[in-house]
Amino acid sequence: MIVILVPGFWLGASSWRDVEPPLTAAGHTVRALTLPGLDADADRSGIGVRDHVAAIVAAIDAENEPVVLVGHSGGGPLVYAAADARPDRVARIVFVDAGPLTSGASINDALPAEGADVPLPDWAAFEEAELAGLTGELRERMRAEAVPQPAAVTREPVELSDERRRAIPATVICTSMPAAQVRELIAAEHPYMAELAAMSDVDLVDLPTGHWPQFSRPADLGAAIVAALG
């Protein structure tokens, strides 16, 4: 299958490099994306959610067969919005420590911005569970690769319009939050889980580590994605 990998905030295609080998070894074709504004010298002032969704939709349209969309963290709502735009072209969605948002919600408008940029915060801003498995060396590597996120992408609402998106099979790979806790939040009708609860075919898979498994457990993440594709 064609697997389109979409990174979370601050990261580009290179963040998936250690995840790709298990996918290609299993016979899948990998397309790792760097979204608009995530090049180091990019002008991020005019880039918003629609630009990121459009880039993913363009990657879907470039293929001659249905694709699998994999979205990490803030990339999760973006791939879901792209699936909403092309529900008949997406065979499965894989959320990596992520999930879909309801229409009109922003991905994370609490992140501090510096003009048009949202830089990667200091590590102290994250919870311990998010940093699990991210050694000092891995933190240095990730920060060296990190590029400021376009501020508008963190703040603008995600727009959804086609309810066929909810019938697309999905897998949530739970890393910093265990699957049992996700199920509890769904049962409690937590607003953040409303769209996930509305999807008709969702598998929850545990991969215990922090929020960035593509750095802390890349081979295992690749294997989990392969397993999700059957």
TrEMBL record:
One GO molecular-function entry = catalytic activity
- Coiled-coil segments on the chain, per record: none
| Record InterPro entries | AB_hydrolase_1, AB_hydrolase_fold, Sec-Metab_Biosynth_Hydrolase
Question: Organism's domain of life?
Answer: Bacteria
AB hydrolase-1 domain residues: 3-221
Q: What is this protein called?
A: Esterase/lipase
Species annotation: Amycolatopsis methanolica 239
